[in-house]
Design goal:
heterodimer; A: mainly alpha; B: 155 residues; mainly alpha; 5 helices
Chain lengths: 497, 155
Amino acid sequence: MWDFLLQGFEVALTPLNLGLAFIGALLGTLFGALPGIGPINGIAILMPLAYTLGLPAESALILLAGIYTGAEYGGRISSILLNVPGDAGAVMTTLDGHPLAKKGLAGPALGLSAVSSFIGATIAIVGLTLFAPLLAAFAVNFGPAEYFALMVFAFSSLSVMMGKDPIKTLIGAVLGVMLATVGVDSGTGVMRFTGGMPELYDGIDFVVLVIGMFAISEILLMLEHDLTKGGGMAPVGRVMVSMKEVMFCKGAILRSSLIGFVIGVLPGTGASVAGAVSYTTEKRISDREGTFGHGDMRGLAAPEAANNASAAGSFVPMLTLGIPGSGTTAILLGALMLYNITPGPMLFTEQPRVAGGLIASLYIGNVMLLLLNLPLAGLFARVLTVPRWALVPGIALLAFVGVYQLHSDLMAIFLMLAIGVLGYVLRKFGFSLAPIVLGFVLGELMEENLRRALAMSGGDVAVLFQSTLAIGLWCAAVAVVVVPLVVSGWKRRRASA
Amino acid sequence: MTRLGDRLLGMILLVLAAVYAASTTQMEVPFSYDPLGPKGFPFVLAALLVVLAVVLLLRPALGEPWPRGVLLAKRGVLLAKVVAVLVVLTLYALAFSSLGYLLSSALAIFALAWLFNAGSLKALVCAVAMALGSYALFVYALDISLPVGQLFGGR
């Protein structure tokens, strides 16, 4: 069952793919370090380039996955030095990371966080290797009804876990699914919501949507950030880590790695949730002297181990079920679909080069990332001084060239700009963009499976609730929403009693 | 402010759901192999959006101010800048194939850098260096073809 790994290493160890893994790790750390540009923006911007360069599917995926995992490493740098999270996964890293830097311990903080990132990622990659083929073998039995229920579960766990506002998360997901219904209906050839525009007959292009949503709206959003005014950068010093520090944090690192992996596997929830859950858990377990939030090494190690673990964990549902485990893997899924590869339970048997190559490259990339991030963290920290006026034109260039490469017509670029404005307005209304992308990616699959299930039953809705597996998934979907409500209600009652 | 933002949003979403549903009813479906057809799923989505919008309209306010993260006094300036950036990007799109990559990019970079408070000299240096550098990277290192520009005899 694990033959794919050997084959995967054969793929990942070719010079081209090694080089791409390295470039991915390097660019990913850079993207992660830059405040405002996280893995999701970085991948969105580079996806069309990877495609037009004519890279084979597995190589493109290795590059993009390298950026994803690299960004989870890089996000810590500006969290620690500037108190500004480099990406969403590193929000919790600021809480103890920056106080450490203020105490003059920036070097050890960067070192320790690199090691915890490495341990977290390693545990999760091993988990991915062991767990993914089993899940895939199990998921082969999924029929359309089970898939539909699974996607409903993905959306309900998404709404609970992601963002502060579950209603807006759900609205975002519905809007994403609606965007996915634009274009020719594959079942009947009926035009839907195209407004008579021939450019929309094939639906809204994924690349155009993603670049508009993430690159263009980010440019607009950057207009109001003025980060240079914040406290100023702490001096880096020598980046080092001692065995004693790692041993002091070993409990925090191991627990957080497991939490991160599990949260990553849950469809729809990503690094930011993993960081938050692991930090609060660790605070409850270890914070006896009230040192958390004032520069406790464990409070730094926990979220870093967790966000890296969740990145690797989120590949599990993406590779085995075709359901992305995070906003970023939703984009990777879309990238695979550009290559006409639809991830799902058959991926490990039909495309072992892609599945195995990706997993093997995660092992290799993780080692590269540790080696890059220990000695070179000071160099990456320099990136933080890149002014916004140089960064923004760079993003704009990459966005335009990317879309132009795939569609050399003006309409695509205007559509990208329009979607960018939409994304900006939604963000101003307090939406996060990941649910929208997830909705867009899953929307078509969801409708297809629903219609297929109903076609088999002759229109009887009961087919959706017939198998034990489907019922289980529906129950899980309801439980994810109800249980936290009950628990918080119970806690409130106990607190007031 | 939060209530106002959510109310406004709720109204917009209700209108959107109505338009979406109306557009769904107008589809003509000659035949369908499956019982649901191309209309069923969109109707479910529209209904779901209505429910969510109503919840948004009726629920008590959450703590976040709206619009998020903007000082009241600076809102006018910000809006002007957002519009300016969009105008620059639109002009960039229009000029991309007619003026060619190099010239249109240099102009767009200059304008964007200037809008992000670079100062004229820095913006100029940035525009020239980044346009040439990225052209070299894309065309020579990555072998991507970029528009030369009708002005310079390209297509």
